[in-house]
Design a protein that fits this description.
single chain; about 325 residues; mainly alpha; two-stranded antiparallel sheet; 15 helices
Length: about 325
Amino acid sequence: MSANGVNRAPTWIPDQARDDSLSYNRPGNQAVPVKLTHTRAVFLMVAVTLMWSIAGVVTRQLENARSFEVTFWRSFFTAISLLAILPMWQGRGVFRAMDWRSPAVWLSGLCWSVMFTAFMLALTLASVANVLVTLAAGPLLTALFARIVIGHKLPPRTWGAIVVAGLGIAWMFGSQVRMGEGGQVAGMLVALCVPVAAEVQWTVVQRSQAQGARVDLVPSVLIGAVFSSLATLPLSFPFVATGPDIAWLFLLGLVQLAIPCVLSVVAARVLKAPEVSLLALLEVIFGITLAWLGAHEEPGPTVLAGGTLVIGALVTNELLGWRQRNA
């Protein structure tokens, strides 16, 4: 979900839901297994983060569409795209095979809808750099949430990373308040709804796995897109988007969200969770760079300093954890 709110589907896929192969279902539901190597999965995840990262620069190209209308069209085109992609990917019986009676699937979908809506609203209120750095703290907030709600024991390295990343976010917030940039602060607060919703979803998936159920995140993404478009439709009137705006928003729905969400789930079947978390951070770098080059939105020194603390804390935590597990 990127993060971006999209941002982060692979991070919350439990290890028991992973496997080392990829199956493409052909018409008639005849599955043809295709081996996805580790190297290909890494490149696939890099491509996913690049697709996720275009949200900021594309949003800055819009002429008239703003706020809830932007969110509506993006979610609407995401839902339409997934309705076409899923049958091609998993066969014509994909929708009949979904466990529509599972509360976990619907709760997960609700969380996705919050992430979709909050992410796009945040981009219309704050700079791309502020939003992406705020979202980058999501994995650490998830770890803290797991400690409080589920009782997961956190190692000292993770506690240290939470403190450092918290200082980075506080530094960014404080600087915006001192400069009187209320819109930036509002956008960052809205952006914080994304990791909070992700934490709730993570808890739902974990508890469902513990009870023997398996939550398929791709149908949940579809449900989330439908919920988000329905919730923002009444708030989008009167529509003011131009033809080019609609084209840009279709690009966001298809290329920035629908396709990478599916591909991220595929890559996460091969990659380990720390690898996915580290690779997902590329979205922050790609997103800020694209907004800088494509929309002349240069990040300020405070954002760069606070972002360095957040990203550094995340990278250090993941690398130390990886090293301990390998040892």
